[in-house]
Amino acid sequence: MRWRRCCDAAAKQDARDAVEAQALAIGSQLSQLAAKTNDAMLAANVACDKSTLDKAPISDLLVTANKISKAAADNSAVLASDYLIDAAELAAFSAAITKLDGMKTAPQVAVADRKVAGMSLADGIVFVRAIYRNELDKLMEKFKKTQPDFYGAYFAARVIIDRTGTHAAPAKPVTPPVVPPTP
Fold it and tell me: Which residue, among 75, 102, 80, 96, has the nearest Cα to 22 in the 3D structure?
């Protein structure tokens, strides 16, 4: 288990390094394009340097990388002709961003999976019922007037039918025999 954590951390760092390197390479070219065309908005979206990216939390790095990726996609023709950044490099950058984003949430997903696996069945039912009552049922209200058949079918499907023939009847309590008092 310890070895896996070590390898996961190394893979996450490699993915981060790849995003940083590509963000700097593509972002610097876009920054030069922004200066050349006096495009302040583009310059603001692609402004980054190595130390800022290095110190940034992964979530901030991903925000910056996504801005650069969008700006690169918007200016892909100019990047290909003037800066020799082709569509394959842009696709690789997008793939690196997606890979890092998936690794960012992996620990949270693992914690949630362990929690669900450890829940008892009764706790799981309570959890799911809460989702239905507090979220899904409330979303259905907007269909009450516009699509009454759909609304009615949804709530009809939500009814739990307890078929007594499918499980044993509850045991009747045993009453102790009445013993007459002794004179």
Answer: 96
The token duo for 105 is 């949430």
Neighbouring C-alpha atoms within 13 Å toward the C-beta of 70: 12
- CA dist., res. 129 & res. 177, Å (int): 43
Element (H, E) at 135: none
Structure tokens that stand for 61 in this block = 């790095």
Quote the tokens at residue 30. 């876009």
Domain boundaries, the chain: 2-116, 119-157
Contact (Cβ atoms closer than 8 angstroms) between residue 20 and residue 54 = yes
Tens digit of each residue's pLDDT (9 = 90 or more) over 110-123: 666 677 667 677 77
Residue 84 zone, left/alpha/beta (φ > 0; ψ -120 to 50; rest): left
In angstroms, the CA 149 to CA 140 distance is 12
Instruction: For the chain, list the strands marked E by DSSP.
Output: none
* Interval 15-40 mean pLDDT: 90
